[in-house]
Amino acid sequence: xxxxxxxxxxxxxxxxxxxxxxxxxxxxxxxxxxxxxxxxxxxxxxxxxxxxxxxxxxxxxxxxxxxxxxxxxxxxxxxxxxxxxxxxxxxxxxxxxxxxxxxxxxxxxxxxxxxxxxxxxxxxxxxxxxxxxxxxxxxxxxxxxxxxxxxxxxxxxxxxxxxxxxxxxxxxxxxxxxxxxxxxxxxxxxxxxxxxxxxxxxxxxxxxxxxxxxxxxxxxxxxxxxxxxxxxxxxxxxxxxxxxxxxxxxxxxxxxxxxxxxxxxxxxxxxxxxxxxxxxxxxxxxxxxxxxxxxxxxxxxxxxxxxxxxxxxxxxxxx
Amino acid sequence: xxxxxxxxxxxxxxxxxxxxxxxxxxxxxxxxxxxxxxxxxxxxxxxxxxxxxxxxxxxxxxxxxxxxxxxxxxxxxxxxxxxxxxxxxxxxxxxxxxxxxxxxxxxxxxxxxxxxxxxxxxxxxxxxxxxxxxxxxxxxxxxxxxxxxxxxxxxxxxxxxxxxxxxxxxxxxxxxxxxxxxxxxxxxxxxxxxxxxxxxxxxxxxxxxxxxxxxxxxxxxxxxxxxxxxxxxxxxxxxxxxxxxxxxxxxxxxxxxxxxxxxxxxxxxxxxxxxxxxxxxxxxxxxxxxxxxxxxxxxxxxxxxxxxxxxxxxxxxxxx
Lengths: 319, 320
Prior knowledge:
The structure holds two protein chains of two kinds.
Chain A: E1 3-10, E2 26-32, E3 37-46, E4 53-62, E5 69-72, E6 91-99, E7 102-112, E8 118-127, E9 135-136, E10 151-161, E11 164-177, E12 184-195, E13 201-203, E14 218-228, E15 231-240, E16 253-259, E17 266-267, E18 287-294, E19 297-303, H1 305-308, E20 312-317
Antiparallel strand pairs in A: 1-20, 2-3, 3-4, 4-5, 6-7, 7-8, 8-9, 10-11, 11-12, 12-13, 14-15, 15-16, 16-17, 18-19, 19-20
Chain B: E1 3-11, E2 24-33, E3 37-45, E4 57-64, E5 67-74, E6 93-101, E7 104-114, E8 120-129, E9 137-138, E10 153-163, E11 166-180, E12 183-195, E13 202-203, E14 218-227, E15 230-238, E16 251-257, E17 264-265, E18 285-292, E19 295-301, H1 303-306, E20 310-316
Antiparallel strand pairs in B: 1-20, 2-3, 3-4, 4-5, 6-7, 7-8, 8-9, 10-11, 11-12, 12-13, 14-15, 15-16, 16-17, 18-19, 19-20
């Protein structure tokens, strides 16, 4: 299997975004319609209180050629959470899927902390207007920290397989200060859980699904799963837990694993491999993959340099 | 109405000395009865840090079984350290509820973290002791009961019980953060969950106790005790603002249930109120009912939510 890069397909700087957002189109996630594809992403506004950033969900509708932009959302897709709630300071990302005539949106909600920068948890919001707006099922999360997954539950990706909801997500294993005067940095791994209703989940409680390539300090994020010819393929991004923001060789790359039973996964990052392109928009970093099928093609949306500040691009599996 | 005869304050943390974890506060008493003493777990605090912020630890005091006003020993160390960097219990382990389970003793506790937009958040942790309740080890670095769609923050005040081979946890869940004079104040309500093993919990997902004094009444310390064919819950409640003084501060309420999940509130029956003067003249809170040698006792906090310790009352008559 081989990815063919199609280049950057969305640059947020070329569009007016809702919620006063500028720059960043992170973690693209597709909802396929008959004649277009709605791609949700997280973009950023400045928090007027303290100059920090708030991630908001927006979307772009594209022709199925995934080249031509039809429109960008001009309204709030989902407001941020209430005071003190898990998603008060941002939603990034939101995974969408159709189920029972509605659209489920699994949000990764961010809330700022004092001793460490942030915690996250996974919420559920439902859209009854084909994904234009989403309403939470409650103020709190459907998946949060637990005995053996102590922090940073996020990046849920949900698929209904054989009548059961499967979620791949990440859980934090802990925070560590690598430099005496540096901020604490986090490490997270990919986990899996199942549910009958998409609301009440049974975790595997701390079982790391995908083996490390970089050792225990590998952080793995944004799992996304697709079935191709009877085999499940999981794409994700991974990096070192420290000095990963500006040091390209320690930054995010795309990983891959496959499974025939959804329980045991074999890591195989090279097949199909996706690498950086020197001099291009994704020369230093590859992150936040999202894989989906569209008119018989297997498409991979992903972010490039600076965690998606300049938007997202597309690769297609060679047929 | 129950008739509680107040026995007075039994423990004053300021009198202990020599313990870094305990300068003041002895909050949320929870008992474990031994052959010749009663161990009362409580939560205390070292001095506030440079920013005026506290952490809280839990420890215990052993009271002589034949004379509960005789302190035999205060734990040298807290029963649990604080959690690690970024963990849910990094800034406090309070309150704690204790239960025997076979050869083990389990502690369920509120773990405190600090947040940017609101001062704190709380989730419930669990730890186990294999030395009879002297020291405890966490069963995991994360909480055993955390936030859910209907219980979005401040899961605290656990009270662990076992009835009919089933584990029950009564606790509080935050409903909203209310801005009062520029300060975020949590409003919380009493909830419950049930479990076969004390680890995986099924939540009732409802407020058990109707709010009485105002919609945003905060309720805490849902202490459940079985006697005479029904379950009795003593809890405390307060107004959502100006609650640090006498008028709107904590009082002790009461509810009863015949099935554990449906509760009828009847505060007039609680039978205990603030005193005209003394250590519990402004507020009374964090009730804990226990039985000892044929008598029913109520441990509770007085002014400033236990800053100066806890006291005891004894029931005259029956819990029925």
